[in-house]
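Researcher: Next entry in the queue.
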Amino acid sequence: MDRRRVLGFGAVLAAMGGKARARPKDWPPTPKWRPSFAQPLAAVIDRMRYYTDQARDFAVFRNGTCALLEAGLSDAEAKTAANAILGEVFHAHPDMNPLRMDDGNVMVRFSQPALNIVVLTTVARAHWAEIEARHKDGLVRGEVMLSPQGQNVFDDRGKMGLFGRALMFMDAQAPEIVRIERRSA
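Model: Structure for this entry, 185 residues:
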């Protein structure tokens, strides 16, 4: 009987006689910045419905992170799927892509295409002093992001993206789905 196991790098190293390094206590690494303000979820949901042409189901987490879902899932299945999507991004390197939308807001997309967060420009402008002062605290330990401006140098869209990503990290550390939105018939 051929039995195969998938081993993590540490287990493979130990099996070869080497020593695996213990994971740091803050694994996965998270940013220091926990924004002091929230976005109105009703406005985030409205914009997400607009961006998806009301053709997608999605789950909304407490801080506005949205997980796009397959159509027709029960509420329990939708919650399970949304938590799995958020968990995949959180436990991988959460690469982000802040996109300027046609209405002036920024959509932060992650390496998992099913996870997004809308950054409302009106909210960002109302709290710009904090975003300007703290956006680099939205990076995680040892992280380097490349932008057209250089390493860890961000324009306004990038700063808004780091704000949105900080909210995603807050949702990932304490996931709480507050609403399941269904596509229009």
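Model: Residues 87 and 172 are 7 Å apart (CA to CA).
Researcher: Noted, moving on.
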